[in-house]
Amino acid sequence: MAGQKSALGEYLCARRRLLVPEQVGLPIDRHRRVEGLRRDEVAALAGISREYYVRLEQGRDTRPSMQVITALARALQLDEYAIRYLVRLATPQPPRPLSAGALPGDITGRLLDQWPDSPALVLDPNRDIVASNRLARAVVPESFQVGMNLMLNAFLPGARLRHPDWAGLVADHAGALRYYSDPENMRRQEIVEQLLREQPEFERCWKRHDARPFSERTFHVEIAGIGTIELNIQLFSLPVHFGYELMVVFPSPGTPAAAAIAYLAAGGSAIESTSTL
Fold first, then answer.
1. What whole-number distance in Å separates Cα of residue 11 and Cα of residue 207?
2. Phi and psi torsions of 76, nearest 5°
3. Nearest C-alpha neighbor of 149 from the set 194, 211, 207, 206
């Protein structure tokens, strides 16, 4: 419960600091020294007392009503995913099992293997790969193996240079990690602590407290004997297992990438490949 209390207050504080007065209709003050909005300004916009809002940020009140949550979401200009995340932080919930064992990995792996023409994998809430099919491992052998973590993979050597929007990739993975994972989960804590120590770009993204599903994205992979191709990724949530996602990798029709995927699906092997995921 303590983690939820801390998370709610930290989230409210982070989101108000991202807003500037003119975004919410307040006059511009050239001598203003406060980063973002002040607590009293958020309280006024939400129609609650400053004292009550301070209790929320400090973790002394952790169960605001849905009416208060709605008012805060409006005041902080949260989108639909941020609102859902805020509701989860403010609503007591039983712990969720987030280990790979929470999902029948063997069954899922066999299901993915029924798709011989589409690279596919399953992620858990911590961005760990819990299942992947043969074609996914053939396309990106150094990143799509079971047990690897896509948040950590974003910082593999060369990823920044090879990805057309590397900062966006990091932000997407960080937002999805926060949105889906449990702050109390030891694996999540291990990933976050490691990246906060080693990666300034992750720290910048993490401090924003963005929480959202991973967006659609393209990435580049170099297949030996074929060259560099561009692939698309699409993620689908698994409704029975919150936070688990099915990731499908696919080429645009009629492109060299489509020919490369067909070649690998037919049994061709890549001697080596490098990717940006």
1. 9
2. -90, 0
3. 194
Q: What is the pLDDT at residue 164?
A: 81
CATH annotation of 101-275: 3.30.450.180
Lookup: tokens for 184: 């109390």
Bridge partners of 258, per DSSP, are none
79 secondary structure, DSSP code = -
**Residue 163 structure tokens:** 């990805």
CA–CA distance from 105 to each of 22, 80, 111 (Å)?
Answer: 50, 31, 10
The rounded distance, in Å, linking the Cα atoms of 56 and 11 is 10
Residue entry with tokens 């169960």: 63
Question: Side-chain half-sphere of 117: how many Cα atoms within 13 Å?
Answer: 4
Domain at 2-90, CATH class: mainly alpha
pLDDT tens column, 139-172 = 888 889 999 999 999 998 877 767 788 899 999 9
